[in-house]
TrEMBL record:
Coiled coil feature spans: none
Subcellular location field: Cytoplasm
The organism of origin for this protein: Cervus elaphus hippelaphus (European red deer)
Protein name in the entry: T-complex protein 1 subunit gamma
Molecular-function GO terms, alphabetical: ATP binding; ATP hydrolysis activity; ATP-dependent protein folding chaperone; unfolded protein binding
Taxonomic classification: Eukaryota, Metazoa, Chordata, Craniata, Vertebrata
Keyword ATP-binding: yes
GO cellular component: chaperonin-containing T-complex
Length: 275
């Protein structure tokens, strides 16, 4: 069962697992969450799954003795109440503003992982990343690391080169070589539409009877792109970022207006920048 697979991933003597990914690569890990993600699941927490598997395994013996399932469930609920009561008694308050305390808590979670050799670096990166993405709204703190934190892997270097970037990193280049690459405190326009001529969603017929008609059609396409760019230029941005494409003509107009353009970014990156 899945519980048996991840059983040996828990505790101080957790063992490494060798995974074969769909591309034929080999991944070594003892992180149960990563193993489940590679096998089947994406959202389940592996400790909960392991606990559920163990409880079902224990309950099987009572069901074979013709004990009614409601009796087993009520016993589990009573055990849950007892466990919560015990945890409340032994728990201690934690000051999240105390950096040393938080680092000790994080360190206890990674001592069984491969990264434990660089535990100081990993703990500081994890804590800084969480503090970077957390924000408070209406007296409520929100920390969404899945949505607003991202791990960007760049080949080369050493582990000690790893760091937290207090901003948004997009692994994209500018669309035109003459566009600015370094802009301090930029004014940014985010788009989820393309800056290129949009083809008709359904079949479109155009009847051309003269040679000038074809030239006029091309001219209309250029005028459409020009109008889009003029509308953007009126906003006086320094950077334009879009999730779709940018035509060569649009790049030309934006470059002349001294605007840097980046295309085909992920929607999640757009949301991070907007935040």
């Amino acid at each position: 069962t899945i519980a048996d697979i991840i059983r040996t991933c828990l505790g101080p003597k957790s063992m490494m697992k060798m995974l074969l990914d769909p591309m034929g690569g080999i991944v070594m890990t003892n992180d149960g969450n990563a193993i489940l993600r590679e096998i089947l699941f994406k959202m389940l927490r592996y400790v909960c799954l392991f606990s559920a598997g163990e409880m079902l395994s224990v309950a099987e013996h009572f069901l074979e003795q013709q004990m009614h399932p409601t009796v087993v469930i009520s016993a589990y609920r009573k055990a849950l109440d007892d466990m919560i009561s015990t945890l409340k008694k032994i728990s201690i308050p934690v000051d999240t503003s105390n950096r040393d305390t938080m680092l000790n808590i994080i360190n206890s979670s990674i001592t069984t992982k491969v990264i434990s050799r660089w535990s100081s670096l990993a703990c500081n990166i994890a804590l800084d990343a969480v503090k970077t993405v957390q924000f408070e709204e209406n007296g409520r703190k929100e920390i969404d690391i899945k949505k607003y934190a991202r791990v960007e892997k760049i080949p080369g270097g050493i582990i000690e080169d790893s760091c937290v970037l207090r901003g948004v990193m997009i692994n994209k280049d500018v669309t035109h070589p003459r566009m600015r690459r370094y802009i301090k405190n930029p004014r940014i326009v985010l788009l989820d539409s393309s800056l290129e001529y949009k083809k008709g969603e359904s079949q479109t017929d155009i009847e051309i009877t003269r040679e000038e008609d074809f030239t006029r059609i091309l001219q209309m396409e250029e005028e459409y792109i020009q109008q889009l760019c003029e509308d953007i230029i009126q906003l006086k941005p320094d950077v334009v970022i879009t999730e779709k494409g940018i035509s060569d003509l649009a790049q030309h107009y934006l470059m002349r207006a001294n605007i840097t353009a980046i295309r085909r970014v992920r929607k999640t990156d757009n949301n991070r920048i907007a935040r």
